[in-house]
């Protein structure tokens, strides 16, 4: 044997390579019939085998199984049974099972020499883990191997299949050699978001670079509790474990934990999570200056807003100056004509950057028209156009769905969605409760600003991953164009050189711009509908592979990577984080009692917070409204850097003072109280 370490001889030969006039072996595929052994009966589509040529060992993926007999036609069998299906034949007809094997790689007997020699007639074996890793090009990776899937082969040990991690080369996933990941599959069945999270977690754990990720949450609470584990230890926190159980949260199974061990990954949530969300409608404070740090999470349009769990939630609010450059995306195309656009540009040139300034400017224009009757234009703009702008801008705050405020926005002491990223930061933009125009506006503006930062080298990390779901909506195929589509095309073409990587997902790959999917060096395919598979995008797949994609179960995907000559099937475990409505069921404010809310807040302020039992005893008989008021004052003091040394004692004293205070007595500022507490502690 040329490479005995590549052939699993313990299972014995599982078949024999055969060449014929009709089906000759080539450099890229060969055929073999299977043996009648227990190991051979485990052969299936996607398994990997090895066979030898004169000077090389070929490692190949199984495809297109067919069963043959010597029958010339179906009629021969019909007549042999005299048309009676129950009739037993006098002798059993010989049948053989034949697989086509698509070659992943060949290894020559002499190191360093390449080989494309077809295999010769001879025994075929299951490929070992070493053979699979060689065939997938791991030896040639220039970057860190990133686990993507776990391949399962038919050569079993103690009833368990041989498993081999399927890696992607980091330099071909994040750049600079190539880049970008694309995931295709039916909604709800192909686990696109789950695998994107799994891949990002793999990168965070394995990469030696400073990396971060930006994701857009478009479905409920899917991505809002990524800092929470999929399960908790009942001994460490029995009350929280009971809430997990009541919510029906299913933790990782023993099988999934074993998969993580075999992939060499830890089962841990994302520690550095920041969530950004717009205001809820009607929550605009209406002030001349809106300070972002003063906006409470309960004013934001997000499902993560419970006290104690909102420490990572921050606002996305823009003034008119941040909205005007995108007026063409906000107003109807037929409405936003050249005259409308011209007046908007005049407003921008005049420095009108708030709704307050807009109303003031419109008042000045109205005075101008009233000063002298008969005036029909102002600075070249027709009065009818100005009236139209006035009418449309009156509805602008509601049209922007909580993104636009009346005054100027001050982010000077609050995190901003467009800030530079920290290493291993997971940043989520929650647009799940927005629809139409405001949702598109957020995605467009945020991605364009991040792209500008990438061009200036101001990302703050070596590599930033942007995950965009429903890519066919934001970068559609066809002639129609938009600023966001052009930005995404630009990212796919040049992003890897500017430390920006696009992770895109969609149900219909064929409906995404060709350059976006064409520039993705790594692609994953889950279950796909038959109407999609008929598209030319899948013509490189064999008929068997296409039919397999029609019925893939959850957690099983087809991986195509720059280093792979042939795509390979594999599985992956669920991400070890909370996803979906279980997050709000467990950590939503309406789901927990008062003591748990206080405990959640104190855990962010103290190394050793009091137990839930202590808090329940101390709060017995207190009105929830008063506790919430004192708790919010305490949190505000900590946000401003004025928190007391012992937050819990400060909270209790505040509640005791409140219970003795007459109704007409002056109520001091919570910040002053916090400073007094700090002085007492000193």
TrEMBL record:
InterPro entries, sorted: P-loop_NTPase, T4SS_component
Superkingdom: Bacteria
Parts of the chain that traverse the membrane: none
SUPFAM superfamilies: P-loop containing nucleoside triphosphate hydrolases (SSF52540)
Region entry Disordered, spans: 638-670
Name of this chain's protein: Conserved hypothetical cytosolic protein
